[in-house]
């Protein structure tokens, strides 16, 4: 026999029940999302939890920053190769000085590495905090 909805004594209307997965299923899904965000790619855990807009935003930020980092390193290496090629033969101390000089100009690369670190560490933390707030508020 199907279960009848409970009526509140004031209005006579059925009470709304919150539709949430059982505690075990929600916890496993969140744990899997955090692991995917750490070990696969930042943002994948958001997709597992059903937050597709956050997934796309984090993924675009992550890969966009990674692309800028790759282009920055490419230009640094090209500059270093051109400098070494213009000198002809080069001794080890001169090569070390050239590399140090090139790395001194790597402020964009350093900024990109910092942003990637923030995204990589922040995505799982944001996922857990947001899901806990959503769950218990």
Folded structure, characterized:
The chain has helices at 23-39, 44-48, 52-87, 92-104, 107-136. α3 runs antiparallel to α4. The protein is mostly helical and 137 residues long. The relative contact order is 0.12.
Write the layout of secondary structure elements.
Elements: H1 23-39, H2 44-48, H3 52-87, H4 92-104, H5 107-136
Helix pairs in contact: 1-5, 3-4, 3-5
Unreliable stretches (pLDDT < 50, length at least 5) are: none
The chain-level mean pLDDT equals 82
Helix content: over 70%
Overall 3D form: rod-shaped
% residues in beta strands = under 5%
Largest sheet report: none
Backbone structural class: mainly alpha
Give the distance, in angstroms, between the N- and C-terminal Cα atoms. 34 Å
Indicate the radius of gyration in whole angstroms: 26 Å
Q: How many helices?
A: 5
Which structural traits does this protein have?
137 residues, mainly alpha, rod-shaped
Question: What's the short version?
Answer:
This protein is mostly helical.
């Amino acid at each position: 026999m199907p279960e009848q909805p409970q009526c509140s004594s004031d209005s006579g209307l059925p009470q709304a029940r919150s539709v949430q997965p059982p505690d075990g299923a929600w916890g496993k899904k969140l744990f899997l999302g955090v692991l995917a965000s750490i070990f696969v790619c930042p943002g994948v855990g958001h997709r597992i939890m059903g937050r597709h807009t956050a997934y796309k935003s984090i993924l675009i930020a992550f890969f966009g920053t990674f692309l800028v980092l790759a282009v920055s390193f490419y230009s640094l290496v090209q500059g270093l190769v051109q400098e070494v090629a213009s000198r002809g033969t080069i001794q080890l101390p001169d090569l070390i000085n050239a590399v140090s000089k090139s790395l001194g100009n790597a402020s964009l690369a350093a900024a990109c590495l910092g942003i990637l670190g923030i995204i990589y560490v922040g995505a799982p933390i944001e996922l857990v905090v947001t899901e806990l707030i959503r769950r218990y508020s």
